[in-house]
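pasting input
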Amino acid sequence: MTDIVVLVSGGGTNLQAIIDRIEDGSLKDVRIKAVISNNKNAGALERANKHGIDALCVSPADYKDRPDFEEGLLKAINDMTPDLIVLAGFLVVLPKQIISEYKNRIINIHPSLIPSFCGKGFYGLKVHEEALKRGVKVTGATVHFVDEGTDTGPIILQKAVEILPDDTPEVLQRRVMEQAEWVLLPEAIGLIAAGRVEIKDRRTVIR
Amino acid sequence: MTDIVVLVSGGGTNLQAIIDRIEDGSLKDVRIKAVISNNKNAGALERANKHGIDALCVSPADYKDRPDFEEGLLKAINDMTPDLIVLAGFLVVLPKQIISEYKNRIINIHPSLIPSFCGKGFYGLKVHEEALKRGVKVTGATVHFVDEGTDTGPIILQKAVEILPDDTPEVLQRRVMEQAEWVLLPEAIGLIAAGRVEIKDRRTVIR
């Protein structure tokens, strides 16, 4: 069994995709130990509760300073002894200590085909705004391991999504979620749980 | 009828794709007025001859300096009075004067999903080497209008191509050609010839 902790700041549709794949049996040998949010109003916490999954809020507002919050977040994660940490729309820059303690055991989903439209400043709707502004005809999503950089870690899976003439950032965001993110994230977790993802330099090999 | 001039430095497989689509009738109302190469040994010139198309070599070696060569190239193009200039693997940086005289009437094919793996230094096999080094799982090709920058003009068409575990740069290059370049370039020429491509700021709208 692979125990995962899902970190999320918002509504949690990617979390829902993972829950759905576990419940329908297509994502095997994976258990969500807890969902942790930095935001107590995150819809993701409700989703977790509804499915009987531990839901924790670790908010900067409840800590005296940033190092204190980071320590609290690390402790909350360590308490769950996860095999894998899944960032599913987590808008907090992950503390360096967590990245180093969980090296090659943290994955993130990004709503573009990295290396396009990624790095500092590219998150959420902004990614799609920039893709439309540049006028690309194809975008997509990427699941990758998290390293010290922003969106620079080894890529596990990518899926292309077509951009249509009348797309707004919101419409495009939704299509990228439906066609790519909700498919790729459970798939990547399943591949890792099955021991099929090997990291070689900055690349991954799926066996 | 839309008259095009194809500029090419190498073997000319993209040129061949255009010729094939004209000859099989799927690319209508388009005529190749001439093929121009900077390299007298370019296989593309042979292909042109074989299909009864004017084949010209405009080589820097035959001119006293760079401005003289650029003037010769512009004259060779102007003599053909093209509606559209197609760069199909042309490894010469296009002179500014040609870009301004033929504004929005020059297109290029690039073997990646722009803005990934493009810009100065990214041409030919190098593009695929860099994509494999970064470990992306999806690449592709882009047809775009040529402006003063390198690969910065409005994008007309893009097509994604999957990267496979055992790909070498050469194998990947061939797959991107077969699955994307040879499809996209004739398709883009057809759309332009049919008046279906409109440029809006840095974007195109296909009607």
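fyi The beta strands of chain B are 2-7, 30-37, 54-57, 84-87, 106-110, 138-145, 155-162, 197-200, 203-206.
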